[in-house]
Design a protein that fits this description.
single chain; mainly beta; globular
Length: 487
């Protein structure tokens, strides 16, 4: 016992010696300059430690975090790097309360103490296990290494699901799960061995990239809540490049249609209401109850000459999941064209209360539109409003809901205007968004400044994705594909 006590005492003395006392600190009447900007954000109780860097040139950082209900943690070092167990204990004990951060910095032997800032620990739980997303260099036509990845919510663990080093020269994209179920997902493969990979339970199959009866590949997937169907659009996509410095690339479709795929029967369910000659239909999603299909529609233009006239409305058509049949009329749910605007990427909340979309000046490929913002549509009143606290002055775009229908993830270029990163925000009971925060990393400034990749197409998952990347890569390269039929 004496030996153990001596060891513990020595460890305690060593740790104490590494922590310098903050004496005679000069009071600074401003908030600390930190990256990411976490001042005043709202966080879920299970989020990874909200580590941050002080962006001023300082020698040491000292941070104390106090809970409004109980508890305190402290760290001193090069940046705010909180112990993960201490962090989760403190946040868990202060759910529905506040965390107060006291920051001191040392420079040239002198300590400075800044104004405190707070974080709110939300009463709304984020029960999801993690996120999936693609990481790719922010180019236009040429890419090197890229892949699909999984990241846990409660820590910094990231792992690749599949990378294009396993399928050389090819692109993988749009990993989409069925209501966050990690066992039911779909993603695309583009290139010489292109196709659409479906994972349903224990079965994995790759569909042939194209069917002669549709205009292009199956893109922009969204699952029916039962997992029996998956909605797609089929697009003849083209790119155009701007010559002005504030605009980079435009994506438009020479034509596009919408259809539903029957997963068990390998059938594409087509309808003339969803594949018209004068209009482009795009980006379909099922309602929370699975009895409606929302999608975009735009009067076809002469591209690229009139690309700024490409403006989409949000429409809805009935869908019968028992028969796989559509209704006989289309309703316009949100008329953006009347406002001189366009909408894209509709995403209904899983509780059926809201539908989130991106709104901008023209087009549908919003990721390079600096004016693109997130909006929320009340599906009962059909009134829509901007999510001001989540939006920024740069492109805020592709989004998906947490299974609890309060939290959501989206991409934004607000850090530097070039790279898209993942942000999280929460919708309260009044339909208002909290201030969005950048996905936490162990050493945020080091991670994001050294990363050469953009994050895109994020989605939530309720558990780890089961995938044998070697086997999947071999199946992709084999060229074996499942044929689809037309219903």
């Amino acid at each position: 016992m004496r030996h153990i006590y001596s060891i513990l005492l020595s460890v305690t003395m060593l740790l104490t010696a590494c922590t310098e006392a903050v004496d005679n600190a000069v009071e600074v009447n401003k908030l600390p300059a930190i990256f990411p900007d976490y001042c005043g954000v709202t966080i879920p109780a299970n989020i990874a430690p909200m580590n941050f860097n002080v962006t001023d040139n300082v020698d040491k950082v000292d941070v104390t975090v106090k809970g409004s209900k109980e508890g305190m943690i402290h760290h001193q070092g090069d940046y705010a790097d909180f112990d993960i167990d201490e962090w989760h204990d403190l946040v868990g004990r202060n759910k529905g309360g506040m965390l107060t951060f006291s920051v001191c910095t040392k420079k040239d032997g002198r300590w400075c103490r800044y104004k405190d800032f707070t974080m709110e620990v939300s009463q709304y739980e984020m029960t999801d296990y993690g996120l999936t997303y693609r990481r790719i260099a922010p180019g236009y036509e040429v890419y090197s290494k890229m892949g699909l990845y999984e990241r846990r919510i409660d820590n910094f663990d990231e792992r690749p699901l599949i990378e294009n080093t396993q399928v050389p020269g090819m692109c993988v994209n749009c990993h989409t799960s069925c209501k966050t179920n990690p066992d039911n997902y779909v993603f695309h493969i583009r290139g010489d061995h292109g196709g659409t990979l479906f994972k349903t339970g224990d079965k994995t199959e790759i569909l042939k990239a194209k069917n002669d009866s549709i205009k292009g590949s199956m893109v922009y997937p969204y699952w029916h809540p039962t997992g029996k169907y998956c909605a797609f659009s089929t697009n003849q996509t083209r790119q155009g490049f701007h010559v002005v410095k504030d605009e980079r690339v435009e994506v438009f479709d020479l034509s596009s249609d919408v259809f539903v795929y029957d997963v068990e029967r390998h059938e594409l369910i087509l309808d003339t209401l969803l594949s018209t000659k004068l209009y482009s239909e795009n980006s379909p999603v099922f309602s929370a109850d699975g009895r409606s299909l929302y999608y975009l529609t735009c009067l076809q233009q002469d591209y690229p000459l009139h690309f700024k006239e490409e403006k989409y409305n949000l429409c809805r058509i009935d869908f019968d999941p028992n028969t796989g049949r559509y209704g006989n009329k289309v309703d316009t749910i949100y008329n953006a064209v009347r406002e001189g605007k366009t909408v894209t990427w509709p995403r209904p909340s899983y509780d059926g209360r809201y539908l989130m979309f991106t709104k901008m000046d023209y087009g549908y490929f919003s990721i390079w539109h600096k004016e693109s913002d997130l909006y929320l549509l009340d599906l009962k009143t059909l009134k829509a409003w901007p999510l001001d606290n989540a939006n920024s002055n740069d492109a805020d775009s592709f989004h998906n809901w947490s299974i609890g229908s309060h939290w959501f993830v989206f991409t934004s270029r607000r850090v530097d205007g070039l790279y898209s990163h993942l942000y999280l925000s929460c919708i309260d009971d009044r339909g208002k968004a909290t201030k969005a925060f950048l996905l936490p990393q162990k050493n945020p400034l080091d991670y994001y400044s050294s990363s050469l990749y953009s994050f895109n197409t994020p989605d939530f998952i309720s558990g780890p994705v089961e995938i044998d990347s070697r086997e999947v890569g071999a199946n992709i390269l084999s060229g074996q594909r499942v044929e689809t039929k037309i219903r």
